[in-house]
Amino acid sequence: MTGDTAGSRIVLRNTLREHASPYDLAGDARAGLSSTPKTLPSKYFYDARGSHLFEMITRLPQYYLTRAETEILEREAGRFVEAVRPRVLVEFGSGAARKTRILLDAMLERGLLEGYGPVDVSAQASRHAADTLIRDYPDIRVEGVIGDFERPRDLPFPGRRRLMAFLGSTIGNLEPVQATAFLTSIRKEMTAADAFLVGFDLVKDVVLLERAYDDEAGVTAKFNLNVLRVLNRDLGASFDLEMFRHRAVWNAGNSRIEMHLESAVEQSVRIQSIGLDVSFAAGETIRTELSHKYTRESAVGLLEASGLRVESWCTDESDRFALALARALG
Ligand SMILES: C[S@@+](CC[C@H](N)C(=O)[O-])C[C@H]1O[C@@H](n2cnc3c(N)ncnc32)[C@H](O)[C@@H]1O
């Protein structure tokens, strides 16, 4: 499906319901809630409400990630853009595309900016970002994909020199094997002139990490519970949100924060549209998000295993977050 608004300056191609799309709520809910331990992929958080809650999270004092990455972008965006001289920016997991503007501004200042290609599962966030960007960048063309970045096909702006970006530590939401597969698939799309900018959250004090995913105001809890609302609305499930608790725990063995929803009582939940009854013991959890934390060594190892060579590695002043600028090897 192609949506075309604001003359022809925005084209958002919706691939979510295309044949063999990896965005399959019913299939993933059946598989994840029938397995031990129970899991749900984090991409299903992001309906309109979930995307809005995520934006609220990025403004929380405990959520240092956005501020640290912004600090690096403000300092380094000009240098990245000088090194690549891209005509277009293609961004995976673009969301509200707020930090994106720092890169777009650096491209605009150098007379390079022609287009922006967001790739995100959230239709609402993508549409809103596209509408505000064409208002604020009068000469920009937005050609995006509402779809799952894990099976990238027909990426925007083929044939133009592209800076690809994967910000916000979204790479951390992928298991290392998935992350390697994703990065490899993008690398195969890149020409020697293109570059890939990837944001990694770095290993740090466990208290700071756990606090970033469990704020006192309960915004992250609402975000986590939102996936149950999505299942209730889209699959006719009967989750009682009062009967589940948000948990964020550090898994040292896998170097990751895990978000879980813990059942407060023994209970059974019906998921009507897939004919599934899911039993929970009291205290049993659904793991809803992984957020892997990297060292420079593990991040460079991941990129190299995906056929990418790191050209530049930049951290914020407090070494909380890093941006790696990488090129396709060979
Ligand atoms: C952690 S947020 C980051 C948002 C933004 N890039 C930032 O840095 O603040 C993850 C974003 O990726 C999107 N997303 C998550 N999984 C996805 C997937 N498999 N395919 C496409 N988009 C996905 C979400 O809708 C959300 O906008």
Question: What does this entry look like structurally?
Answer:
There is one protein chain. The protein has 330 residues and is α/β, with parallel strands linked by helices. It folds into two domains: 25-44 and 212-292, no CATH class; 57-205 and 293-328, Vaccinia Virus protein VP39 (Rossmann fold), CATH 3.40.50. The protein contains nine helices and 15 strands. The longest helix has 21 residues, at 64-84. It is globular. Residues 1-5 have low confidence and may be disordered. Bound molecules: S-adenosylmethionine.
Main attributes?
9-stranded mixed beta sheet; about 325 residues; 2 domains; disordered N terminus; Rossmann fold; binds S-adenosylmethionine; alpha/beta; 4-stranded mixed beta sheet
Kindly give the count of domains: 2
Fourth-tier CATH superfamily name of the largest domain: Vaccinia Virus protein VP39
Q: Which stretches of 5+ consecutive residues score pLDDT under 50?
A: 1-5
Shape: globular
Would you report the number of β strands?
Answer: 15
- Give me the CATH fold name of the largest domain: Rossmann fold
| Structural category | alpha/beta
- In helices, the fraction of residues equals 25-40%
Ligand names: S-adenosylmethionine
CATH architecture of the largest domain: 3-Layer(aba) Sandwich
Short note summarizing the structure:
This protein is 35% helix and 27% strand. By secondary structure, it is of the alpha/beta class. The strands form three sheets. A nine-stranded mixed beta sheet has the order 1-2-6-5-4-7-8-15-14, with helices on both faces. A four-stranded mixed beta sheet has the order 3-13-10-9.
